[in-house]
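Need residues for this backbone.
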């Protein structure tokens, strides 16, 4: 994988709940952070797969540095919050430290697995059975 030109938050563009969440992220994140549906990206070039992108939100950081590589789920949310700056970055830092680092993935998976039931969610938001990272 070559260098990513800008950090990218990757979401499921077929999911209404995810799309609404991405709209909020676009307002919070700096202009140099891309917020893109996975359906419009060359995921292999970014070092990930469609199966993973259907399963969880992804943060694709610049090569090197603290946010280098691909993070998914709760760690991706934490990195995005850290990139958002104040007042959000301290929340991202806290989500990266024990004990929240241990609890956040459980809460993330609960939300992700039930996103079709949340406000703005539709049947298209349901994660396909057996679709795991």
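Answer:
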């Amino acid at each position: 994988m070559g260098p990513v030109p800008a950090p990218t938050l990757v979401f499921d563009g077929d999911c209404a709940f995810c799309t609404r969440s991405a709209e909020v992220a676009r307002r919070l994140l700096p202009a140099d952070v891309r917020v893109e549906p996975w359906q419009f990206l060359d995921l292999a070039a970014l070092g990930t797969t469609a199966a993973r992108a259907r399963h969880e939100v992804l943060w694709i950081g610049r090569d090197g540095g603290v946010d280098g590589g691909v993070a998914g789920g709760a760690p991706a949310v934490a990195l995005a919050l850290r990139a958002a700056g104040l007042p959000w970055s301290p929340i991202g830092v806290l989500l990266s430290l024990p004990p929240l680092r241990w609890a956040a993935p459980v809460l993330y998976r609960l939300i992700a697995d039930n996103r079709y039931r949340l406000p703005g969610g539709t049947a298209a938001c349901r994660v396909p059975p057996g679709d795991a990272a």
